[in-house]
Amino acid sequence: MNITCLNCGRPYPDSGTPYKCPKCGGLFDISDLEFDPTQVDYAQRGVWRYRHTFGSLSTNCEPVSLGEGATPLVWADAFGRQIAFKCEFLNPTGSFKDRGTSLITTFLKSRGVNAGLEDSSGNAGASFAAYAARAGIKAKIYIPAAASGPKRQQIEFYGAELRAIEGTRSNVSEALENALWTGSSASDAAYASHAYLPINIPGYATAAYEIFDQIGCAPGSVVVPAGQGGLLLGLYRGFKALKHACLTNSIPYMLGVQARACSPLWVLSTVGNSAMGFITEGQTLAEGVRVKRPLRAGTLLQMVEAGQGAFVAVDEADILPGRDELAKRGLYVEPTSALVWSALEQTIAHLPQPVVVMLTGSGYKSAIPTKLKA
Question: For an engineered disulfide with 338, which of 131, 168, 322, 350 has Cβ 3.0 to 4.6 Å away?
Answer without folding.
Answer: 322
